[in-house]
């Protein structure tokens, strides 16, 4: 018998080392692929555009025309008091130098403004094709050749220059985003655990999970063509650290609890995994399912974000349920120093904040529920104050050169189009299409361009300013008149983004709600409880968007709202909010199965999980808040809404509203499951476990 026990102990000691060895092998395999993720990251317009939109078809066909995709720029010369003859001569010389250094499509012609202060030269080249690095070289070379001075300002704008500036911003996100996220998570873990060592373990594991997710994301791109953009890869990193740290908090809290009852760390960890593993698996599965619903979106950027976000969550899950337990077991109890959970000890009993909150919710559940609903409804009214759709020039928190050029053009040519509209038409109907375009109201000029592969390109200038209502009407009229042709260009792309996001909301939102409800119903064996949780997170989403409406314009000074904000914030808040609901309701169901009365089960669940949920909510909110430090308005808006929504969900909805509703509904919350019926023989409720700070 003694030999058998010794053999079992040896096998148990070997398991953590085996897990560690497997992870080393996995990382060695993933390393070559993870390092290549940046090589397949694409931030061209076509990588964000709707898959079926006119503007997307234009971009794809332009790639097949002679010379490939054209990089379009506008070189803008401006002097406040009016351009001099010397200024015009300088401009002509510089444009000639640009034409001599690069192969341009046509001869650039000067377009003077009516007030004589500005001169613009539309410049286009097919040299870079679809190569983003070559495009950046071209744009920067044009900027080097076009120089001002002595009161003459020279700016390079247009779609090509804007794409270069946006690409530089996205390329600069990876390092600062990762470092800031790691710093924020590290600080919060140190505060939560109050240990000089413990915080480092989940942080290192999250970093390893992030590295693995990069390798898997690269594989998805190579095998299935999944698009990888700066936005989607950044969100993936946020999810790895945010969701992964949440799972670590829940596991470590349960492991600490078991170490007081079980002598050997290995056995304590096995018990902890059995206790919290189902909730973690269910919550991560719900998040993954919600994110995968984005595959139903028509917008390329949204559809690509679904698989990458899912990869981030699942890599975090696998790491936190395998590598983290192995490291904690190998490090033993000493990793908790100075608050080491001794075998046989009991935690210091003290009245927690969540105990007090639960008591207040239990005394007047209907009053608390009504008050919370009114508050969330009032906050949601702020959505009426959301600014209109975000324009290209308003997408940056700091103004790049391309945006400055667009602003100069808008001021100097207030009633004239300065951004070409691209029309792609079958070559055999090109002459008729050109005549129809010139007869269209709102068109200032139209010129025939390249032909190839059965298609002809026509460049159109509208009589109205870019992205103005007049130009929008012109684009829509062109699309109505030109059968078999496609109308694209920068302004048409923004129009398609807005329309497609509206379509995607109608399609994706019901799919997300249905999938989450089905998963919750299967997990909780109830219909009422899932409806309660989903209704709560939808209310949180509305309130968070409303708070955004109150601050985006008046406080942040944003001129518009990203068209995709509503859909993306909904998917993330519903998936992640239900995540915490699972932790709470799973414990509530466990208490009910042990015989606790409904009210006691709800309050005990809040007391025992409140600390973990609060810590997890703070970490997740902080990781998404990192996006508010990024230089792109759409990322700032998304990070702000999700962070605010997570905090509302953590400290108002989970603690007060869901608990109050559960107390008020009593056993009906589990309808139609067996827990909704009174037991034949009442079982005395289990004494609630004394809870200190659950996460340290």
Features of the shown structure:
about 700 residues, alpha+beta, four-stranded antiparallel sheet, 21 helices, elongated
Summarize the model shown.
The chain has 696 residues and is an alpha+beta fold.
What does this structure look like?
The protein has 696 residues and is of the alpha+beta class. The protein has 21 helices and eight strands. It has helices at residues 2-34, 37-40, 54-64, 85-101, 132-145, 158-171, 174-193, 200-224, 230-259, 265-292, 300-331, 353-363, 365-380, 401-412, 430-438, 469-481, 490-524, 528-551, 565-593, 598-625, 633-665; strands spanning 71-78, 111-112, 118-125, 153-157, 421-426, 443-452, 455-462, 486-488. A four-stranded antiparallel beta sheet has the order 2-3-1-4. Helix 10 crosses helix 17 (490-524), helix 17 (490-524) packs parallel to helix 19 and helix 19 (565-593) runs antiparallel to helix 20. It is elongated. The two termini are 38 Å apart. The model is unreliable at 680-696 (pLDDT under 50).
Poorly predicted regions are 680-696
Q: Compute the average pLDDT.
A: 84
The radius of gyration over CA amounts to 29 Å
- Largest sheet: number of strands, sense, barrel closure: 4 strands, antiparallel
Shape: elongated
Strands of the widest sheet, in order across it, are 2-3-1-4
Please tally the β strands and state the result.
8
């Amino acid at each position: 018998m003694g030999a058998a026990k010794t053999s079992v102990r040896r096998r148990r000691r070997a398991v953590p080392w085996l897990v560690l060895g497997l992870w080393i092998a996995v990382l060695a395999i993933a390393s070559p692929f993870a390092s290549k993720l940046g090589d397949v990251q694409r931030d061209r317009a076509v990588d964000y555009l709707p898959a079926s939109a006119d503007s997307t078809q234009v971009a794809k066909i332009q790639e097949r025309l002679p010379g490939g995709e054209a990089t379009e720029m506008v070189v803008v010369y401006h002097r406040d008091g009016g351009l001099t003859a010397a200024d015009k001569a300088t401009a002509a010389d510089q444009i000639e130098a640009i034409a001599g250094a690069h192969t341009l499509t046509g001869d650039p012609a000067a377009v003077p403004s009516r007030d004589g202060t500005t001169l613009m030269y539309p410049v286009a080249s097919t040299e870079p094709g679809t190569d983003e690095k070559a495009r950046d070289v071209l744009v920067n070379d044009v900027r080097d050749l076009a120089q001002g001075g002595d009161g003459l300002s020279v700016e390079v704008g247009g779609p090509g220059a804007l794409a270069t500036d946006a690409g530089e911003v996205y390329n600069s996100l990876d390092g600062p985003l990762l470092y800031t996220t790691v710093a924020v998570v590290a600080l919060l873990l140190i505060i939560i655990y109050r240990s000089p060592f413990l915080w480092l373990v989940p942080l290192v594991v999250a970093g390893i999970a992030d590295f693995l997710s990069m390798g898997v994301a690269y594989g998805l791109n190579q095998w299935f063509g999944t698009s990888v953009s700066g936005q989607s890869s950044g969100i993936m990193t946020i999810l790895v650290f945010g969701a992964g740290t949440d799972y670590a908090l829940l596991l470590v809290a349960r492991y600490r609890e078991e170490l007081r009852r079980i002598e050997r760390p290995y056995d304590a960890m096995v018990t902890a995994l059995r206790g919290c593993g189902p909730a973690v698996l269910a919550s991560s599965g719900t998040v993954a399912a919600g994110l995968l619903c984005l595959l139903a979106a028509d917008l390329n950027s949204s559809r690509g974000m679904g698989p990458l976000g899912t990869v981030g969550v699942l890599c975090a899950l696998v790491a936190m349920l395998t590598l983290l337990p192995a490291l904690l077991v190998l490090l033993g109890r000493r990793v908790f120093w100075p608050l080491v959970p001794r075998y046989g000890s009991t935690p210091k009993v003290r009245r927690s904040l969540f105990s007090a909150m639960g008591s207040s919710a239990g005394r007047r559940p209907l009053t608390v529920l009504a008050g919370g609903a009114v508050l969330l409804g009032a906050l949601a009214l702020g959505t009426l104050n959301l600014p209109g759709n975000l324009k290209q020039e308003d997408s940056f928190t700091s103004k790049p050169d391309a945006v400055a050029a667009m602003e100069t053009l808008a001021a100097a040519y207030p009633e004239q189009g300065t951004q070409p509209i691209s029309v792609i038409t079958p070559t055999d109907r090109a002459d008729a299409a050109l005549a129809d375009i010139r007869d269209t109201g709102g068109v200032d000029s139209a010129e025939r361009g390249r032909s190839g592969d059965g298609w002809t390109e026509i460049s159109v200038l509208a009589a109205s300013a870019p992205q103005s209502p007049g130009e929008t009407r012109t684009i829509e009229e062109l699309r109505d008149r030109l059968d078999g042709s496609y109308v694209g260009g920068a302004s048409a792309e923004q129009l398609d983004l807005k329309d497609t996001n509206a379509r995607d909301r109608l399609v994706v939102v019901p799919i997300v709600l249905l999938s989450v409800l089905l998963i919750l119903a299967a997990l909780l064996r109830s219909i009422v409880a899932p409806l309660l949780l989903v209704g709560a997170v939808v209310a949180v989403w509305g309130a968070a968007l409303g708070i955004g409406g109150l601050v985006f314009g008046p406080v942040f000074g944003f001129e518009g709202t990203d068209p995709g904000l509503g859909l993306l914030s909904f998917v993330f808040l519903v998936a992640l909010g239900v995540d915490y609901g699972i932790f709470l309701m799973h414990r509530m169901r466990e208490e009910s199965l042990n015989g606790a009365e409904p009210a006691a089960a709800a309050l005990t669940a809040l007391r025992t999980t409140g600390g973990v949920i609060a810590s997890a909510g703070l970490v997740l909110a902080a990781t998404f808040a990192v996006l508010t430090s990024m230089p792109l308005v759409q990322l700032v808006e998304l990070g702000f809404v999700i962070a605010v929504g997570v905090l509302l969900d953590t400290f108002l909805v989970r603690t007060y509203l869901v608990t109050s509703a559960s107390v008020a509904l009593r056993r009906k919350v589990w309808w139609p499951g067996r827990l909704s019926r009174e037991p034949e023989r009442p079982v005395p409720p289990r004494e609630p476990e004394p809870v200190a700070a659950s996460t340290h």
